[in-house]
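WP5 quarterly update. Target: Zinc metalloprotease. Source organism: Clostridium simiarum. Length: 336 aa.
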Amino acid sequence: MYIIWGILAFSLLIVGHEFGHFTLAKLNGIKVEEFSLGMGPKILGFKGKETEYMIKALPIGGYVKMLGEEDNVDDERAFSSKSPLRRISVIAAGPIMNFILALLLFTLISMNNGFVLPKINQVSPNSPAMEAGLISGDEIKSLNGNKILTWEDFSMAASNNNGNPLNLEVERAGEIKSYTITPRFNEELGKYAIGIGPTAVEKPSFGESIKHSFVECRFLIKQTFGALKTIFTGKAKLNDFGGPVTIIKATGVAAKSGIWNLLFFAALLSVQLGIFNLLPFPALDGGWIFIMFIELITRKKINDKIIGTLNYIGFSLLIIMMIAVTIKDILFPISF
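Structure tokens (predicted):
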């Protein structure tokens, strides 16, 4: 049952993404021929006024097929007949919808669960923080030169520091103060710590929840780009990679631990899906946007055969990558 909830949550992200493309296509007067959730053989579907809506067998994505998307069509409602800016708006709408969906989910989570701020609420007696001079009410602004936006920012950066001295900047009564603090290993926590706790906002207002949703999204965008940097620089480990199997398993585990954890994981995936689709890689939304920006700057349309070849190569590489990570998921599964 939890796996089913996981599939439904992941499907919500795909529907939201494709609905973004669909909506902007309609607003730009483009004919949408197909709206599909999933890939492979069709399971069920129905024909609307001009669009066929389908659910397919493999829950690994989806697509919106527009008239004139793959070649030039002499029709004012064709995707190919629209200006580069209009086409960019249609393609960018998918990833943008993923970010909007994440913001909505984080707002709901914050309103229900509250959130913590990068502001010190308590300082443990005889801790490195107390010895350094930190007090309750200090707001953490940076750690080792990196800006701190959330308590998770601080917690993650501090735990990755392996007990080395922390260069901390805090704001106190409008004044920035700097401290160098060396963490001590805490037997109870099983990690290095400096002995501080965050300030919790238990019942935030709607406005505070919206504001915090932007902070959460910004934090996850930063973390995702950090992960991509690790991958592209060859520093990633085998268990840093996961495909559809890992995603469904992880979503199922999140569902098992409660609806709010499932929604948080869905919001995290939505941010990552938005970023992944904006990468300037052929067959992804980012690849299309890159091509259209070239057309916008040069005011010359790129040959359809060149675009078709690039997208074919890009799509083939994505399928190969998906097969590879799926095999990895089966042979070397990540434990949860």
